Amino acid sequence: MRTALVPSAMLPLAACAGRQSALDPQGLQSDEILRTFFIFLVIAAVVWVAVVIVLIIGMLRRKRAGDQPLGLHIPFERATGRVVLGLGLATLVIVLGLSIVSYAGQRTVFAKDEHALTLKVIGHQWWWEVRYEDDSPDRSFVTANEIRIPAGQPVKVELESADVIHSFWVPSLTGKMDLITGQKNELQFTARNAGVYRGQCAEFCGLQHAHMAFAVLALPPDEFGRWRDHENQNANIPTDQLGKQGEQLFRARGCALCHNIRGTLAGGQLGPDLTHVGSRTTIAAGTLPLTPATLGAWIADPQHIKPGNYMPKMPLQSGELIAILHYLEQLK
Amino acid sequence: MSVTADKRELRDDALNGLQLSTRLESLWRTPSGFLGALMSVDHKVVGRRYIVTAFVFLLLGGVLAILMRVQLAGPEQTFLSPDKYNQIFTMHGSTMMFLFAVPVMEAFAVYLVPLMVGTRNIAFPRLNAFSYWIFLFGGCFLWISFMLNVGPDVGWFAYVPLSSLQYTPTKRPDVWAQMITFTEVAALAVAVEIVVTVFKLRAPGMTLDRIPLFVWAMLVTAFLVMFAMPSIMVASTSLILDRLVNTRFYDSSSGGHPLLWQHLFWFFGHPEVYIIFIPGTGMVSAILATFARRPVVGYPVVILSLIATGFLSFGLWVHHMFVTGLPQLGAGLFTASSMLIAVPSGLQIFCWLATLWDGRPVYRTPLLFVIGFIVIFVLGGLSGVMVASVPIDTQVHDTYFVVAHFHYVLIGGAVFPLIGAVYYWFPKITGRMLSETLGRWNFWLAFVGFNVAFFPMHILGLIGMPRRVYTYTAEMDWAHLNLLSSGGAAIFAISFALLLANAILSLRSGALAGNNPWDASTLEWATTSPPAPQNFDRIPVVKHRDPLWADNESLPVVVGLSLERREVLLTTLAEADPQVREASPEPSIWPLLTAIATTVFFIGSIFTPWAVLWGTPPMAVALIGWFWPGGSKENEE
After folding, report:
1. Are strands A154-161 and A117-124 parallel, antiparallel or unpaired?
2. From A13, A123, B78, B253, which residue has the greatest number of CB atoms within 10 Å?
3. pTM score, two decimals?
């Protein structure tokens, strides 16, 4: 009951921006980064203001009249030279100090916790495959474009790419990390509180780079456990006539060539896994909130919503569309 | 090569005044007519073309920037399709970096360095002409491709695997890769010319500690070009080999690695920033000395800073790759080395502030742009210190914060000095002054427009807006700042329209400049405006760092150069003692023909590997023509 309730209660949050701001940190790592940033910001502001003040005073200083070039008759320069060198030395000290501040922050941000929950995120043009892997295969499952994590617990995300370089970025939780073919990267973060945090691909990855977002849903730990148990199960089997018809059409119209629905004959591997698609909060990698209207619009003409993505527009009659939509909505 | 004394040869001590000028002019002038113009090897003619062409590309790149700002002014606009947008931001970056910023800086050097070191022409003038044609053809090739809808669309950084054949099967990345090779060939050629000109063609007496700061800056830049550009040429050539003949440099499934591209690209890409910025500092030093009415404080400090900046710029490319999963300790060290470059940059700023402080500044337009430069560039440098920090970079990398940062650095650090330099040297190049009134309007619109356009981007990046997105939703709360930024961009654009108008109006009816309208101290102001083809009737002898301020009387000169063939005087590297007289090449059509043959070869090779076979013979023929032993004059020896 609550498993179903929480996501729907969060839906409006996910539909609006969610939190995607480095200035609104909600994670231990993003806190630390913002702290480091503010130290830099204060020092930078002081230096900049000082330079501008010196510049203005230098410009306004009462100068002895004359258009005559000073030329060779340069005022005694040694004092000025000392000031310049002193300022250079001060710059060196500031820079070394900031390097130390930066390294301290870096160590905190990238500190590893061996007990972190591990999941794997694989970047695709232009969506996210999310794998919850476990030693026992029947506790492993795959989902897409939505990452649920336990709040208050460290999470380790292993990052890989299926095609080009992408970058995993949830600014309110931590900084970004690239997903690169032929390389395994990882990122650890801890969400302080339950909530919905928006993430977005940060590395230019082709035509629909702008529409490659995702949601991180931090749930209270017990709720996360229940969600995981539920997500682990196979897809609901439609009970009504329309749903059954939808399931058949899903295969007959070619959707199953790309999409996997666990527990059914649909086993495509190219597109997002749709086993529990009905319980997600957004569609098309965070492009739109998931509602019957947006899901229907997406199936009817995905190229209109996200031009150039790899889901082709399938010729469907309106009855067929309704049946497929009805079927997918049941996949909670 | 030196010519033994020949008593019957006519030398420049035999004539005086108008006779001498006329004789030299007919010896050094560019042949008349259209064909003659194509044959020119005069550094001033080539430099002027270079500058104008680079500014045309600035205009084109600027139009693209405005198109992007229109698209992003509001959420979910459909003014540009995603495909067009991706092409436009790629073309904007590629045009600004490869067709404007680097070429325009080298163009100013091509025009000014020979004048400032007191010689008649640049070293290797035919190579110089060739480099201009290559640059022009490469740039046109890129822009015509764009118009034909084969403009590159994978970013000016063209990261693999996105730019690989598998993910971009069109010809677009090939066009990009070949254009890179073209413009870098041009840049390398100019770099070699600058180095040799500065080392060997300086006027007698211009010892290393009397070289003008602008020339020093261009010398350091030339070395950066020579060490950085080969890296990108290797990278882009490997890319095009991967795409055209199926090599696997960047393919991780066959033992290559995508990160190899990034290392090669940024090993060029970071020095590139300084290749653009260091000439800007040279312009600042020149302008500041003239308008503060005194030499720049700490001449040796400025030079050592330039050299230190040049060295350090090669040791910090990794800060572009902090989020690619490199080892943490190494990344931390690159933080320190990146921040360290703030020290020499800071020292230069302090020297300039001290110059203003101790000078008697005259506030004309060029100085206004220098002051704008200090305000903007210092801010950009400080955000650069932030970006150099690993934890901060993991948040702001590839966001609008970085877009803001590098526009502050590149526009503040290079374009503001450059516009100042246009106002400063326009009288020398054209013989006419730019309007001071329009100049002030130009400055204030540029200063305000720039800051309104780019400052909000810092905040946009921090509140989550990634780069290179063609659209965003209203819910993201990015709309207001984007609209503000687009408005600022419009003001900034108007300032450039004003500059263009000012240039056109002044060319027609600007006040005559005279030799030295600003009462400046360096040698380019010792000759007429615009300079005669031979630059100087007699080669000056330099006895002071600021020769035109040191000597109230006319400059001492050396005599003895031939009046029967083009000759330049070679001097020793450190002390600039006269060494030998050296023949300087006559005008020639062959550099142009070689450039055409090279262009055909390179473009052909995109479409068929056979171009390597049929493309080389014309190049060989053109090169043979170019280097065919010269006319009878030289053989008289």
Report:
1. parallel
2. A123
3. 0.94
